[in-house]
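Weekly structure sync - notes
Attendees: PM, LS, DV (DV joined late)
Agenda: review two folding runs queued last week.

Item 1: First target. Sequence and structure tokens pasted below for the record.
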Amino acid sequence: MSYLDCAPRNADGTRRKIEIIDQTLRDGPQSWWGMRLRKDMGLPMAAELDRTGFHTIDLVGSSIFEVLVRHCKEDPWEQLISLSRAMPKTTVRAGTRSNGIVTFGLTADSVMDLWVQRLCAHGIGSFWIYDGLFNTDKIGRLVKTAQAEGAQALPCILYADSPYHTDEYYAARTRELVALGADGIELEDAAGLLTPERTRTLVAAIKKAAGELPVEIHFHSNNALAPLNYLEGLLAGADRVHTASRPLAAGVSLPSTENTVANLRYAGFDVELDESRFDPVEQHLLRVAEYEDLPVGQPAEYSLFQYRHQLPGGMAGTFKAQLRDRGMEERFEEVLDEMSRVREELGYPVMATPFSQLVGTQAVLNVVTGSRYSVVPDEVMIYAHGFYGKPVAPIDENVLDTIMSSPKAGSYENWEPPQPSLAELRERFGGSISDDELILRLLVPENDIDVMRATPQRHRDFSPTSKQVRFIQELVETSVGAYLHIEAGDFSLTLEGDH
């Protein structure tokens, strides 16, 4: 079919308006730059994004906090405050698991609630909340916590491809999420698995179950189908789509804002964005990529390989690199086959945090040891005991017996996830630290925080300039000591003192 002018009109003959959620500051950098977007990289384009007319700008998640501290040596609270204040016109959003932040384990309810409250205190006005096993008690509590702080809360449905993840299954989960008092529903296809045909039926089922609530669709382009799936999803009733500026879009990321807006208008939808803001953001990101030697988003080709492993975003490449570091790159295909088998045996968990890590780790252990499930991580034991939630399908009985046969697994039989109070947690760090500091120290090892605070902050100028000037700027920014001398031909520059 042709999608030109295919959108049905409103009853009064006007075009149906589609709203855009911007991912230029969150999922775009997460997909292409490993979340390493410093404040000096994001702040210069914040005003342009704020004035574009996006419904919401996604900004932060707990994993970004860890990356900023460890790799960028930057205080994530300071970045959040600076960026949210620079975008006063637009609602800014954060994402969180319902039962964990950063680690692949489980986080106490008191910490989860404080995390949401502190994000709201620093400008967050919207949340997407995900849980691959749909623990509605945990999701519902965070929905109420966010709403009590004046923020909206949208539970997120993570798409997975299995015999059990049917349209009917997702419609039933949607009805449960609506009953929690949610402000909307988000459907995310992080691995780019959806086909146009499945998108059509799935979104229609979710939209019907959501009733009057808005439905957002957030599809990655790993398999090149996301732009087409967006059109199918909107024709099936979705209200909003997620995009990113072109240099951080496509491939393992989401469709670009530029191309999506053009497609929607050609299809007969109305999109109210200020397109004059697109180019300044794009040019800034291209300079950042050039100056920092970072990749720029590239379109992917359709590949059936994606359905073999179902890993989200760039996780397949990351996983291959980790195997290479361990001298196991030649066993990549073998590990992928084992991952597929482990996922089926564990009840088809969605391949997103923490389950993609659990399945991947168990698969590697099975291959390396040569004896399947002879070594089982604690997190897999906790999963098998049901502490992450009820699997969508039964765990293979033989595998379950093998996992439970170890003394360590038996020790979890009467175990309950710890639920320390905030006062008890504060005692670990002296008892008088602020809420923000408590969250930071629970998220990131203390030594990493100390190193971050001892490292001078980078304030790089990403304005257009020549390669020669950029070279001098980089020398000034990275030089150690109080003396710098540069000489080339007739040019000479000497700097003394602090610079």
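Item 2: Second target, run right after the first with the same settings.
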Amino acid sequence: MRLFRTGKLPIIAVIGILSASMLSSFIYANSDSTDRTAKVKSSVRIASASKPSGSLPDETRFQPIAENMRLELKADPTSGHFTVTSKQTGEIWRSFPNSENWQDKLNTDAWKVHLGSPFMFRYLEFNTRKDLLIESNFNAQGGTVTQFEPTDSGFKIRYEMPNIGFIIPVEVKLGEDFVETKILADGLVDEKVYPKDQKDPKARLASIRLFPFLGAQTSDNEDGFLFIPDGPGALLDFKKHRTGTQNLYSERIYGDDWAYSNRNTMSDRNPVSLPVFGMKSNKQAVLGVVAEGEEYANIVAAPSGSFSQYNWVTPEYQYRFKFFQPTDTKKLNGYLTYSPEITKSDRATRYYFIDEQNNREIDYVTLAERYRAHLMQEYGMKPLTNAKLKLQLHLLGGDTEDGFLWDSYLPLTTTEEAAKIVQDLLAVGVKDMDISYLGWQNDGYSEYGGAFPVPKKLGGSDGMKKFADYAHSKGISVYLDASSYTFNSGSKDGFRKNRDGLRDLGSSIIETRDTVVSPRFMENVFLDDLEEAKSLGIDGYLLGQGIGSVLNTDYNESYVSSREQSKQIQARMFEQTKEALGDVQVAKGNEYTLQFISHLDNLPSTYSYDLFVDRIVPFAQIALHGLTTYSFNYANLSDDYREAFLKGIEYGAVPSFVVTYAQSEELLKSLNLQQFYSTNYRDWIQEMESQYKKYEEALGDVQDKFITGHRELMSGVYETTYSNGKQIIVNYNNKKVTAGSHVVEAKDYIVNQGGA
């Protein structure tokens, strides 16, 4: 995989004024204005309006709308609120908070209005202040329902707010074990026509949270959690007395959009690669999957005691985005504003309802299993068959050596040397591996554009084909890292920065150390190169960065693409790579890449270290194991080698290393390889052999098996169970422990074949 070497894009903090009364009422945060460091406050205010009484809908007025073998849907035509009842257990899920403890003093009058509304939203008044978001909700605006129409499987409803001229059309559908809520693009209005003698504030929609408190519960019995997609997965346990207040998680699905990054605060949390969230309370749970428009949504969550007595988690659909508008040709001066045009598309979330059946208690494993089924049903992912555990061997080929007068090519692992590394690994017993060649491009790892031909000092195209043929003779697959197409260092491939670079809404070229390439230009170059890659006899590409893990809007007039269109471009590149080369892997891949890949590289194994997170769980790994293999960060670059190894064993990963034939000191000749600080394969061959054999012993026979259980047995001791009955118990403590009938040594693990 290619690491992003140059840090964050240039940014500055934007400081607004947020009063204490607003904080006590609500913080409405997203990637444009989130208070991520507790040092920067959002430019947001509460809409002034009459104070409607905060109340929950009367369930006795709800009408039967649709039902199937498992669920019954009822709805209130006057508000659109609904309930879903399990026919098997009688459990009820509500689109609004549970009425228990409604009168709790933590539920302020302002918050009760939020809690009872079918949706919350925020908007701007462009003729008043272009960077100030105003928060409101349907009830606070005195909104009305002007249409309620039952359908075959649900209902359609139209919300109108005459005060500001907004119309929000919504559709709710009942599925086999889910309800899907959707804001329709067709009929959405965010503009009011004023008489000529009245001033038009030019109010425009910025974002919506639809049924934001669906399933919301208090922490009275403390039997529940919120699930957020941070890293492998994180839980916020229900706690009646939680330290700290106004804890809020808000992260954009598929990460920040670089087209809006200039002078905006960017997230330092893990990017959200899976558009999922969830909640468990007592004997019921709900798993949310943002199914349409996820590239324009945030996942937002707050535990009880933060803004009310309720725990809640919801998507927030974005319609306009903050950006820096320059006012001079040098683009040094300007102001922050929001995109004038609305980004319209259907926005849908599917809520899977889960209740305790057959005496099986609900936990995060249950949610992950339902998401696994979703991936199989909606993306066509299939269980692996006869899968082998393979060492993921990344070879760093070469780079540019920085010289006093001119630069030169720095070979680190030639194709002949690569064959020697493979021979030595085979000799010590590493029989199965996949090889990903990094830095094989014409000018090496840190230079972008003009990937072909393979440099002669590396072995040339003939040398690469010879190496691929040799690897195939040993049953080994060879992949080339192709994430470099995301950037261009100069004029290679006919690239011109001012013509072909990615542009933000202020028309500035997006640059890190190198220029970010327009997605449409990138796709053309990428497809042109596929035939040459095919001639090398390789098995596929390892993709990443702007092809699978980074998603941007492009305002370059020659290559305009929305974030949604950029996602479609990336998906095509995956599909065409698989068609041309036979296989494809991805580093830190987003959900839309999973249907194409055979391996997921650099999957996060830890979280973003938010203080309010209570537990880290392998949600992503449980969902993916048995559908694809995955690995974590390179073992030889880990800060804590032993703990990283144990985490891989616990989470069902495969081992991964990055090595060179050259001595590690040779890498110092390049200014751009600082992250590769210990790579000489001779220094690591014994560890690679040892780790491979330990992984093979522990996990070799479960590569095509689902994870069916995971739990903490005691502090620092975890058990993972597979569908064939195998159990792995890992002890992270500095002393041995006894877990049932098993003794596990300090910083070690045991394998229980029979599951007894």
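Discussion on item 2: Residues 423 and 474 are 9 Å apart (CA to CA).
Action: LS to circulate a short write-up before next sync.
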